[in-house]
Inverse folding.
């Protein structure tokens, strides 16, 4: 469990050895007092938002010349007095500074404790705090954009607004219960049904956005399918720009799935090379083909490779047969590989619009394929203000809210008594409050913040 916010904590915000500059953060009511004990300048009473240049000394020995930033409560990240020390990035220097701080009254911060204190001091709500972890972990433009939207409070404002509307009607129904013997009505049932229907639509839309948010966070899964020796592994290597998969002229080289990720035009894709699809009695190869089908079922996009010299009717029949074996609803891109063996005239006349000629070996057609992948990812349709749920905890809370509101709406339509309606609305309010931290438990907070890196 994270210690009381009255403690003064310190941590390396920039891990030792990662660059020429190292940053150490100190937060707590005694932050400036403790740092004053090892610093050459008087900063104990220095105002906030000031910079100070001086020397850190410990046991009468100089350690480093540093720049020190002072932030005063409540105008700091944690809402507490905070000192940020910019040192040279030597592991030895940073270790010595940390030891000096610990010897003079600081303790090491637990993972996520700075963000935990910011939440506890009202500097951000719980969903904004979680967005910090997502922002740090983001590896693509899309992930970064969604994390920034959430960290700026757009999601929190939407949830808080919904809660306030429900709280207003819930209080009126509770008031009715206090006057139950007098048969009075304070909450107009038609207005309440209209409100719950409106909130249900918003909550359902947010919950449905999790399908997109999940693939953005974990990478859009793209399965590469086709018969053996079609160049699937060569295509994987070309898309990743590295020799990730073994390439051989021998059919059936790939017998298991190979997965790797790359970012293309700000979008993270998870490409999955699969075993070649064919009739076989080889037990190991059959297992690989079965796994290929499983991956295709779960993929968002399927890249299906055919040979560029195949006839159109043959391609159509093979695609139809392959699609019949896959139950997912992925978008399919048909690729006629080894098109470098055809003349320019054959390239322009041979293939229908739905077939894209490429050469995984030479790179022919790959820019068009990449453009198609980005288009199908739907990332370009996400604007800066769009709300997309990427957190499983938020999704589950939204689903529970949806269930509670659906029950409340059904109760209103069937004339159920106010005490049961109030109970369902309270349940919806509880689950909405879980998202922003209006409703929390120590176990929940400990689980969330323990996953943060030290220094955040």
């Amino acid at each position: 469990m994270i210690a009381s916010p009255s403690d003064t904590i310190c941590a390396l915000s920039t891990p030792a050895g990662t660059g020429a500059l190292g940053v150490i953060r100190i937060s707590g009511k005694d932050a400036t007092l403790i740092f004053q004990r090892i610093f050459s300048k008087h900063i104990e009473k220095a105002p906030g938002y000031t910079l100070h240049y001086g020397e850190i000394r410990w046991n009468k020995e100089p350690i480093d010349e540093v720049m020190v930033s002072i932030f005063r409560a409540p105008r700091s990240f944690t809402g507490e007095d905070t000192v940020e020390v910019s040192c040279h990035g030597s592991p030895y220097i940073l270790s010595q500074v940390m030891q000096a701080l610990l010897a003079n009254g600081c303790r090491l911060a637990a993972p996520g404790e700075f963000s935990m204190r910011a939440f506890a001091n009202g500097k951000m709500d719980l969903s904004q705090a979680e967005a910090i972890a997502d922002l740090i972990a983001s590896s693509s433009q899309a992930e970064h954009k969604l994390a920034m939207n959430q960290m700026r409070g757009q999601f929190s404002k939407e949830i808080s607004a919904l809660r306030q509307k429900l709280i207003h009607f819930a209080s009126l129904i509770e008031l009715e219960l206090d006057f139950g013997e007098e048969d009075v009505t304070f909450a107009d049932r038609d207005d309440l049904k209209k409100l719950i229907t409106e909130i249900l639509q918003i909550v359902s839309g947010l919950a449905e956005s999790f399908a997109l948010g999940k693939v953005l966070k974990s990478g859009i899964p793209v399965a590469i399918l086709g018969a053996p020796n079609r160049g699937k592994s060569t295509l994987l290597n070309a898309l990743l720009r590295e020799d990730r998969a073994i390439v051989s002229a021998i059919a059936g080289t790939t017998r298991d799935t190979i997965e790797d990720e790359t970012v293309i035009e700000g979008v993270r894709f998870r490409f999955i090379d699969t075993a070649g699809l064919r009739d076989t009695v080889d037990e190991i190869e059959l297992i690989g083909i079965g796994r290929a089908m499983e991956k295709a079922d779960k993929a968002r996009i399927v890249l299906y490779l055919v040979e560029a010299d195949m006839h159109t009717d043959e391609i159509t029949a093979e695609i139809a047969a392959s699609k019949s074996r896959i139950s997912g609803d992925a978008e399919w891109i048909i690729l006629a590989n080894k098109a470098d063996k055809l003349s320019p005239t054959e390239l322009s006349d041979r293939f229908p619009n739905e077939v894209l000629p490429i050469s995984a070996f030479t790179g022919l057609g790959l820019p068009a394929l990449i453009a198609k992948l980005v288009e199908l990812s739907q990332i370009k349709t996400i604007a800066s203000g769009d709300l997309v749920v990427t957190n499983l905890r938020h999704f589950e809370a939204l689903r529970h809210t949806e269930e509670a509101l659906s029950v409340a709406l059904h109760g209103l339509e069937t004339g159920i008594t106010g005490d049961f309606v109030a109970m369902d609305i309270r349940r919806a309010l509880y689950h909405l409050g879980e998202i922003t931290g209006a409703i929390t438990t120590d176990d929940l907070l400990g689980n969330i913040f323990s996953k943060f890196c030290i220094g955040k």
Remarks:
- Residues 149 and 385 are 7 Å apart (CA to CA).
- Confidence is low (pLDDT under 50) at residues 1-6, 246-255.
- The chain has 16 helices and twelve strands.
